[in-house]
Amino acid sequence: MITAAFPARPLPQPGPLPNDLQLTSTGQLRHLLTVEGLSRELVTEILDNAESFANMNEKAVKKVPLLRGKTIVNLFFEASTRTRTTFELAAKRLSADVLNINVSTSSATKGESLLDTLRNLEAMNVDMFVVRHQQSGAAHFMARHVEPGISVLNAGDGRHAHPTQALLDMFTIRRFKGDFTRLKVAIVGDILHSRVARSQIHALNILQAGEVRVVAPHSLLPAHVEDLGVHVFHSLEQGLRDADVVIMLRLQRERMEHAHLPSEHEYFQLFGLTQRRLLVAKPDCLVMHPGPANRGVEIDSAVADGAQSVILQQVTFGIAVRMAVMSMVMGVRSA
Amino acid sequence: MSVLIENARVIDPASGFDGVTPVCIQGSEILALGEIPEGFEPRRRVDARGRWLFPGLIDLSAHLREPGEEHKATIASETIAAARGGVTTLVMPPNTDPPVDSPAEVELISRRAEQACGVRVLATGALTRGLKGEQLAELAALQRAGVVAVSNAQHPLASPLVLRRAMEYAATFDLMVALSAQDAALAGSGCVHEGAVSTRLGLPGIPEAAETAALGMILALVEQTGARVHVNRLSTRRGAEMVAKARADGLPVSADVAAHQLFLTEVDAADFNPFCHVIPPLRTQRDREGLREAVARGEISAICSDHQPHESDSKLGPFAETRPGISALETLLPLTLRLVEDGLLALPDALARVTSGPAAILGLTGGRLAPGAAADFVLFDPDGRTEISRETWLSAGANTPFMGWSFSGHVTETWVAGRPAWTMPIEVAV
B316: nearest CA in chain A? Predict the structure, then answer.
């Protein structure tokens, strides 16, 4: 008689997701799926941990053995250069083994379901998934169905969330501005399709930013956006007035094809950030962009490369923030 | 066979009768109510003391997945689930594979239904060939084959002109046109109501205007053509108001609402719950209350199940990639009766929305208890409980957001054409 080598696991059942999916019973980070619902203490803890990794990243030897022996899979269903490489670097600096899988050219095109992909990779005994997927809720779905002990980090799901991007943006703002409570932060552009904007809005509100603004035409704003805790502006001049931080969002060309906007030209005329427009903001206003920037569409090169721009620092800090999150979900702390 | 059912509380919403009285059944019909005719010798007597007897439910929208999607469900599996839920007649939308666009499919469906538990399955014919929205299907042939209405299910029509022509042609034969009020372009790739929840979850939304714009077009064309139109599954308060006004203006329009729309809202999908992925989407609390009020006033005269069973894999994936729909035949009666507990409707009025109301929309003689009417009825124990659980679930699709809900009362027997189609198993009767 043949006996099963492994105990049978229960069949996966679809269903609602528990509210506390990303936290352990003691409130520690288990997965990072969304910024929404995290406590101010936990967000601050992530930023504090990232601070020590940022200092380390400036040294000659940039590697620590915190995740030695751990296997991390970068599972990207959507193209990405910046996010994937900074996750990869973060994992390598923590001494983890990294596997990059670009699924858009792999089995998903052959009709394999997300669950099957997950099961096959789990069978290789991985410890963490970093996932980017075109569908909102994909990271939640994976977190619900992974084996206990495996962590899921959301590297962007549909229009829903991009938590590590928002955290690295908060890290950048905190580095340059310190206290959040007096800051006016303006997020400009395609809020409707932006997971980055949603995560930034949650993060800024958790950190009790003085005022969170969104600036866009009606056609690029989601329904009831004010319910997320933002002030809505339709004019860049008004939205930038006395701002301490301005975050420009990437405008995708397909917005013109689907009649959200008439042209890149008109968009730049109305919502493009130029040196002259920036004058209404505070003189030390930070200029940020999650990248990749469309120069001449949402931002003028002189601003993107100007003295107030911290766009490249965002990339640098992204590694430290991702190291912090990776080590926290694996239950280890930096020295 | 002749049967005498004694001591039941007989509730007939159509006549307003509500009282304990004997019911005599001869063959497939009700012979008499109230008094036992002289010389009536029943071969069987049923003592229904403490139980209610009311007409079997008529469900205006239930997908049975056969032919073409038998891996999800079959006519046999779903009619038994229907009978368990007190449904004795159900109307199948035409979007099977192949679609019901010729008499052959109508015959296939009625043959399969005859081999099943006895629940009456009424076919809806396709409005256009292959449901493609362009050329009309042979509507008169479909009518002769026995369809009760024609519909394009959730498939869009190529243009308002096609809709106008379809209405005019159907009106020629006094054939009812059943329509889903959702503008395909405005709905786009949406999978939830466009509002606070879609914004939070980053899911593409379906705006209220997808329903009201489509409804505006439908009502304008009803006025133009005089066609008899039934609107399936309203989801917005504004849509219900538009239908109410059109009815008040004398237009030949009726509407139904899916039972889940009277209990759930967009917030129920807020944790990416795939069981709340349904089209039209669950909307706001204000919409839910508006739909309830329209049901209470009778402006929406039917509650349907909008039964859409799925295999488990269809609901395993990121929300937008899961298949929309709720398996709902077994929750139609419990949810309708919950409206009575909620104080929205008196018991006979609630039952009317699932019996005489839909019968009137279809022009059927059923949905009532009267001498000469079909002996389609439910025996119901008001003191029992219906627990929605996987163990007792009969539909092949377990995709319901109501799993774990508990309801007052339960169906003990469902009779169709004078014979029990479903009897509660003894071991479940505690």
Answer: A14
